[in-house]
UniProtKB/TrEMBL annotation:
<keyword id="KW-0677">Repeat</keyword>
<feature type="domain" description="4Fe-4S ferredoxin-type">
    <location>
        <begin position="88"/>
        <end position="119"/>
    </location>
</feature>
<protein>
    <submittedName>
        <fullName>4Fe-4S dicluster domain-containing protein</fullName>
    </submittedName>
</protein>
<feature type="domain" description="4Fe-4S ferredoxin-type">
    <location>
        <begin position="42"/>
        <end position="70"/>
    </location>
</feature>
<dbReference type="GO" id="GO:0051539">
    <property type="term" value="F:4 iron, 4 sulfur cluster binding"/>
</dbReference>
<dbReference type="InterPro" id="IPR017896">
    <property type="entry name" value="4Fe4S_Fe-S-bd"/>
</dbReference>
<keyword id="KW-0004">4Fe-4S</keyword>
<feature type="signal peptide">
    <location>
        <begin position="1"/>
        <end position="31"/>
    </location>
</feature>
<dbReference type="Pfam" id="PF00037">
    <property type="entry name" value="Fer4"/>
</dbReference>
<dbReference type="InterPro" id="IPR050954">
    <property type="entry name" value="ET_IronSulfur_Cluster-Binding"/>
</dbReference>
<keyword id="KW-0411">Iron-sulfur</keyword>
<keyword id="KW-0408">Iron</keyword>
<dbReference type="Pfam" id="PF13247">
    <property type="entry name" value="Fer4_11"/>
</dbReference>
<dbReference type="GO" id="GO:0046872">
    <property type="term" value="F:metal ion binding"/>
</dbReference>
<keyword id="KW-0479">Metal-binding</keyword>
<feature type="domain" description="4Fe-4S ferredoxin-type">
    <location>
        <begin position="121"/>
        <end position="150"/>
    </location>
</feature>
<dbReference type="InterPro" id="IPR017900">
    <property type="entry name" value="4Fe4S_Fe_S_CS"/>
</dbReference>
Length: 228
């Protein structure tokens, strides 16, 4: 009894700490941010309740975006095992750029190589302008940037802006996911699947207290101990 009460309290505290209430009407969205001169502001949702940790997303990202071995734009972290044998299970959580609306990486870049695309709200990198100073890597509170050993420029997830999006496709990780755990879409489109899911489910975003206004949402797995 005491164990379940403690578990409930831990879970509740964790949810309150990271709970995500995002303004989803177009007026509110416009007021919140200066990015996105048109009606597009891309974001992603990782439904952890559907994720099986297969890493198909990671491999698809590497292939489509020509990410060299030894570095990655995306990883799936495994937590667990939880529960008692033989009913043990794991939780999987996505680690990648959060596409912050107030992005520390952009704020510190001395050359303008790190930027927010005004048409889409995607935080991106202009490799031609990057001098490899690594200020952005130090400034990113989510630790998702790296120096690409081939281009020698800072690199990270750009929602496949230079690859799949240019070809009118979904991001490679979304296309590859066998369980539809990843949903990509436009926060300013009230008809989008993404907005419908955000309205229908409690979601979380990481490190909201920093004021970065991240646009990577997650539906948390419902079972298991939450480690604070
Ligand atoms: S998560 Fe890091 S790299 Fe991505 S926009 Fe935020 S500060 Fe920049
Ligand atoms: S959106 Fe594209 S760049 Fe970002 S993790 Fe997915 S596949 Fe990689
Ligand atoms: S491809 Fe989908 S199910 Fe597999 S690890 Fe990635 S998000 Fe999870």
């Amino acid at each position: 009894m005491e164990n379940s009460r403690r578990h409930f309290l831990k879970s509740t505290c964790a949810l309150v700490a990271g709970v995500s209430v995002y303004p989803l009407s177009s007026n509110q969205a416009n007021a919140e941010t200066a990015v996105g001169t048109n009606n597009t502001k891309y974001a992603m949702l990782h439904d952890e309740t559907k994720c099986i940790g297969c890493n198909a997303c990671v491999e698809a990202c590497r292939e489509v975006n020509h990410v060299p071995e030894g570095v990655t734009r995306l990883s799936i972290e495994r937590l667990g095992p939880f529960g008692e044998y033989p009913n043990q299970f794991y939780h999987f959580t996505r680690h990648s750029c959060q596409h912050c609306e107030d992005a520390p990486c952009v704020n510190v870049c001395p050359t303008g190589a790190a930027f927010i695309d005004k048409e889409t709200g995607i935080v991106s990198v202009n490799a031609d302008r990057c001098v490899g100073c690594q200020y952005c890597i130090a400034a990113c509170p989510y630790e998702v940037r790296f120096i690409n050993p081939v281009t020698k420029a800072a690199d990270k997830c750009d929602f496949c802006r230079e690859t799949n999006l240019k070809q009118g496709k979904q991001p490679a990780c979304v296309e590859a996911c066998p369980t539809k755990a990843l949903v990509f879409g436009n926060l300013k489109d009230p008809e989008s699947e993404l907005v419908a899911l955000l309205k229908a489910n409690p979601t979380q975003r990481s490190k909201l207290d920093l004021g970065t206004r991240p646009k990577l949402f997650r539906i948390k797995a419902k079972q298991g101990e939450i480690i604070l």
